[in-house]
């Protein structure tokens, strides 16, 4: 092992060579150097604004639900590493991937029977879109090639996912002239506005009916729209979409990359509506934040339809598909989650977030405060000053990653009450200066 770099040298090389997500090159903001992580804490290589460690309020972009350096997950990786770290999945198979696929079929909504293992959330959405397009082409209906979604959504940064992100004001607006033109319904009404249900339900039904002849699928994030705005909506709209898709011959895709594995208080957000989609995308918390992996699940109807086509295969095969290390830790992460009273932990965090963020509602620049499961959101009436808000949170010993006009938290489920309280203090501090 080479000698570790001094912090100054590391930052100089980072600035010269490393392109960070959603940032310019070279970067304008100096990143914090994480030396190690354990539990819910990130230990910094050198202190920042008086803090030498930070409580992670983000679960590493919503993935590290068990926290860091977990002995059970560490052991799963080490045990699998002793057998094999990787083997190609074309023409070969192995126990970790088979076990994972069977486990996902067991715990997801009934009817999802087939699992395609992918590299990342965005790729799982690409695969879902390809499944839906190929299903209709195999059925002799190639004209059904467009997708419908609602505004305010986010599905990833690769090509087809960008096409179903909100085209106006979203982070992919730059590509609006080049991306496939999809069908957008209005954004779902905020939160659980029962007065809005009849009118918006009728709107969804009308849009599906009007475009059914050209729609391959409807794709939405269930209950929580994530990086498009952290907005919550009534699960009734998922039932409306299920009924409309069934009535008009359109497939339904649920993107559960952010909501899967308990984040909303149900294991999968589809359970709030009691429905099964034709295709479901999973990622993020799938491996407990240890390794990149995602999955696209589908019903037998979708798989059989593709298999009866002129090209009877799904022509997609990532090099690291079904990676044994990732599959092994994913199986262990799922078992770890389900072996505990995770619902009680999420409810505990939800209650603490409601209490701790209540004061933010009285701040002059705050438009809304909302909490669902282990998700807490403070929405401002202006674009966040990310640098100022981040500094304020770090001074409180907490890591947050604000974006657009939002300061939010999605902490690991193992975050204790005192640490949740500190996260809330940091969110409020960031809202005051952001």
UniProtKB/TrEMBL annotation:
Reactions this protein catalyses: (8S)-8-amino-7-oxononanoate + S-adenosyl-L-methionine = S-adenosyl-4-methylsulfanyl-2-oxobutanoate + (7R,8S)-7,8-diammoniononanoate
Subcellular location: Cytoplasm
Family matches, as Pfam families: Aminotran_3 (PF00202)
UniProt modified residues of type N6-(pyridoxal phosphate)lysine: 284
Cofactor: pyridoxal 5'-phosphate
Enzyme class: transferase
EC number: 2.6.1.62
Annotated binding of substrate, by residue: 61, 154, 284, 317, 401
Binding positions for pyridoxal 5'-phosphate per the UniProt entry: 121-122, 255, 318-319
Site (Participates in the substrate recognition with KAPA and in a stacking interaction with the adenine ring of SAM): 22
Involved pathway(s): Cofactor biosynthesis; biotin biosynthesis; 7,8-diaminononanoate from 8-amino-7-oxononanoate (SAM route): step 1/1
This protein's UniProt keywords: Aminotransferase, Biotin biosynthesis, Cytoplasm, Pyridoxal phosphate, S-adenosyl-L-methionine, Transferase
Role played: Catalyzes the transfer of the alpha-amino group from S-adenosyl-L-methionine (SAM) to 7-keto-8-aminopelargonic acid (KAPA) to form 7,8-diaminopelargonic acid (DAPA). It is the only aminotransferase known to utilize SAM as an amino donor.
Family assignment from sequence similarity: Belongs to the class-III pyridoxal-phosphate-dependent aminotransferase family. BioA subfamily.
NCBIfam families in alphabetical order: bioA, PRK05964.1
Binding partners and assembly: Homodimer.
Record-given protein name: Adenosylmethionine-8-amino-7-oxononanoate aminotransferase
Organism of origin: Streptomyces blastmyceticus
């Amino acid at each position: 092992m080479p000698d570790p770099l001094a912090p100054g040298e590391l930052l100089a090389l980072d600035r010269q060579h490393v392109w960070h997500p959603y940032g310019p090159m070279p970067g304008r903001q100096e990143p914090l150097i994480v030396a190690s992580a354990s539990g819910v804490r990130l230990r910094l290589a050198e202190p920042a604004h008086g803090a030498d460690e930070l409580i992670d309020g983000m679960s590493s972009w919503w993935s590290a639900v068990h926290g860091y350096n977990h002995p059970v997950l560490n052991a799963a990786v080490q045990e699998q590493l002793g057998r094999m770290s990787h083997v190609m999945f074309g023409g070969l198979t192995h126990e970790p991937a088979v076990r994972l696929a069977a486990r996902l079929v067991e715990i997801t909504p009934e009817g999802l029977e087939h699992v395609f293992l992918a590299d990342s959330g965005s790729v799982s959405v690409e695969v879902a879109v390809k499944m839906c397009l190929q299903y209709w082409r195999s059925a002799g209906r190639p004209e059904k090639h467009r997708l419908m979604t609602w505004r305010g959504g986010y599905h990833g940064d690769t090509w087809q996912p960008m096409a179903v992100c909100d085209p106006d004001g979203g982070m992919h607006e730059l590509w609006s002239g080049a991306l496939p033109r999809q069908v957008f319904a209005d954004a779902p009404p905020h939160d659980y506005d029962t007065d809005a249900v009849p009118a918006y339900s009728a709107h969804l039904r009308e849009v599906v009916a009007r475009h059914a002849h050209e729609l391959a699928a409807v794709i939405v994030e269930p209950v929580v729209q994530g990086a498009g705005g952290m907005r919550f909506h009534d699960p009734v709209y998922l039932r409306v979409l299920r009924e409309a898709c069934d009535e008009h011959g359109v497939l339904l895709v649920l993107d559960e990359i952010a909501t899967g594995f308990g984040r909303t208080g149900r294991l999968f957000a589809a359970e709030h509506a009691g429905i099964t989609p034709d295709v479901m995308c999973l990622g993020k918390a799938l491996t407990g934040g240890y390794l990149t992996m995602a999955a696209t699940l589908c019903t037998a109807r979708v798989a059989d339809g593709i298999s009866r086509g002129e090209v009877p295969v799904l022509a997609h095969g990532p090099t690291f598909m079904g990676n044994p290390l990732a599959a092994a830790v994913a199986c262990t992460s799922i078992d770890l989650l389900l072996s505990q009273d995770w619902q009680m932990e999420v409810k505990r965090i939800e209650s603490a977030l409601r209490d701790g963020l209540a004061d933010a509602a009285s701040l002059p620049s705050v438009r809304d405060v909302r909490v669902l499961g282990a998700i807490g959101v403070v929405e401002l009436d202006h674009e966040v000053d990310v640098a100022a808000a981040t500094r304020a949170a770090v001074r409180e010993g907490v890591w947050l990653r604000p974006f657009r006009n939002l300061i939010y938290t999605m902490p690991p489920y193992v975050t204790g009450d005192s640490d949740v309280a500190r996260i809330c203090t940091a969110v409020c501090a960031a809202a005051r200066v952001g």
